[in-house]
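Hey L., structure's done. Input below.
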Amino acid sequence: MQVTVTVNGKSSTRDVEPRLLLVDFLRDELGLTGTNVGCDTSQCGACTVHLDGQAIKSCTALAVQADGSEVTTIEGIATNGTLHPIQQAFWDNHGLQCGFCTSGMIMAAVKLAEQNGAISEEEIRHGLEGNICRCTGYQNIVKAVQAAAQAMQSESGDKQWQRA
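Output:
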């Protein structure tokens, strides 16, 4: 089947098998390897991307389901070489260790922080329940999301961090 998907602002058309997962389409067809395959069962969240503005686990969606949609991956959230506030906060607050879960964690956290700038630790932990990190213990991830959410809220008039 032929699918056309706008990924990180660029339209791509490919012929794909109907059963091809979106995560495999992104990685194998488009070469966007920042989206990771962690568990193949939708438990870990390493494959989280934004599909039409919603955070989803791309191992649970077929590429054909994304036909005509907009997808944003970890490669697409920085603007003009400037890290997204969530990316910068993960760096500044040591919210990563091995990095395997980081792209999915960041993509989930972006949507979480966009919804609520004054987000509590409990809300962050609940909002990221579908993303597993086997290294960090989550404390620095929570600190990073809180810092970024506050920064995003204070910059909300500017909105440089949001993709056009």
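The chain is about 30% helix and 15% strand. The domain at 85-154 is CATH 1.10.150.120 (DNA polymerase; domain 1).

-- N.
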